[in-house]
């Protein structure tokens, strides 16, 4: 069920306005903005930042596979920001979204 909800959210966030393209210097800044100021879940913020925003001038930043995404987040997201399960689920959804484009 949770995966289905994330799929619907991915579709909604995949087609956004120009504000969705706001650049960030770091992935953590993007994640914090969406979680702390926009009340997104950790999974939503991970996917939004991986797909919608240039991070240090790169978009998308999380790679081509769920494994790439997990590796990227290991290096660029504070380990206390999201649980391992949240990261894994979000990265699976991210990979699915890339495959559907």
Report on this model:
- The protein has 101 residues and is mainly alpha-helical.
- It has one domain.
- The protein has five helices and no strands.
- Helix 1 crosses helix 5 (84-99) and helix 2 packs across helix 3.
- The protein starts with a helix and ends with a helix.
- Residues 4-18 have low confidence and may be disordered.
Helix content: 55-70%
Low-pLDDT residue spans: 4-18
Q: Residue-averaged pLDDT, rounded?
A: 86
Specify the biggest β-sheet.
none
Specify the structural class: mainly alpha
- How many domains is the backbone divided into? 1
Shape: globular
Properties at a glance:
101 residues; mainly alpha; globular
Architecture blueprint of SSEs:
Layout (H helix, E strand, L loop, with lengths): L1 H13 L12 H11 L4 H10 L14 H11 L7 H16 L2
Nutshell version of this structure?
With 101 residues, the chain is mostly helical. The protein has helices spanning 2-14, 27-37, 42-51, 66-76, 84-99.
């Amino acid at each position: 069920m949770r995966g289905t909800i994330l799929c619907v959210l991915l579709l909604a966030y995949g087609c956004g306005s120009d504000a969705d393209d706001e650049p960030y210097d770091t992935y953590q800044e993007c994640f914090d903005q969406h979680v702390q100021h926009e009340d997104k879940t950790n999974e939503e913020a991970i996917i939004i930042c991986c797909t919608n925003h240039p991070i240090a001038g790169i978009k998308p930043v999380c790679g081509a596979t769920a494994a790439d995404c997990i590796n990227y987040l290991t290096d660029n997201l504070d380990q206390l920001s999201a649980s391992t399960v949240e990261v894994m689920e979000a990265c699976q959804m991210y990979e699915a979204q890339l495959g559907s484009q």
